[in-house]
Design brief:
Layout (H helix, E strand, L loop, with lengths): L6 H69 L4 E8 L4 E11 L2 E11 L4 E3 L4 E8 L3 E10 L2 E13 L2 E8 L2 E9 L1
Antiparallel strand pairs: 1-2, 1-9, 2-3, 3-4, 3-5, 5-6, 6-7, 7-8, 8-9
């Protein structure tokens, strides 16, 4: 048997496929127009977002500068002359140090030596302390100790007692100590 298509069936299927084609074409065009308009809105939102982001970055920079200025007020009070009293077999008396700020780091150098009787002698400026981190209350740094002619860099902690006193603590080779630094 040979199958011969029915003319009426052929007309109905052609009509069906043509209708399906136009429905897909109209729906596709509607989706395309909707998609394109959403892309245009998103592009405008992106521009607004970029402007907002730039404004936010600028505002953050300004806040950071203000915060740095405030931070300077909160930390720079450590700058100045400080005295440490020592009472051991090698040295009895005090050493006056001067703390200065260089960049974001505070450095302390020897300024003068004082004996038990109060006599003083100007000291050769030797960097003794480098405070790398300091938030106004606590800090971390390197304490440079000279022992038997050799220099040792020892990690130390700074703990403010009040604005005129801080404790410097360190531990090295099983030896630990806490020094009290008082403002002069």
């Amino acid at each position: 048997m040979i199958f011969v298509p029915n003319k009426k069936l052929m007309k109905n299927s052609t009509l069906f496929f043509r209708t399906l084609f136009f429905i897909i074409l109209i729906a596709g065009t509607a989706h395309l127009v909707t998609y394109a308009s959403q892309q245009k809105v998103n592009t405008n939102e992106s521009l607004e977002t970029e402007v907002s982001f730039e404004d936010t970055v600028e505002q953050t920079k300004q806040e950071s500068k203000t915060e740095e200025n405030n931070r300077d007020l909160e930390t720079d009070y450590i700058i100045g002359k400080w005295k440490v009293i020592y009472d051991d077999k090698d040295f009895k008396g005090g050493i006056v140090y001067e703390i200065k700020k260089e960049g974001n780091v505070f450095n302390a150098s020897t300024l003068e030596y004082q004996d038990e009787k109060g006599n003083s002698q100007k000291a050769k400026k030797i960097k003794t302390l480098v405070i790398k981190k300091f938030d106004g209350y606590k800090g971390k740094g390197i304490y440079i100790i000279t022992y038997k002619g050799k220099k040792y860099d020892v990690e130390c902690d700074i703990d403010m007692v009040d604005e005129n006193t801080f404790k410097l603590s360190y531990e090295s080779y099983g030896y630990s100590d806490i020094e009290t630094w008082e403002r002069q």
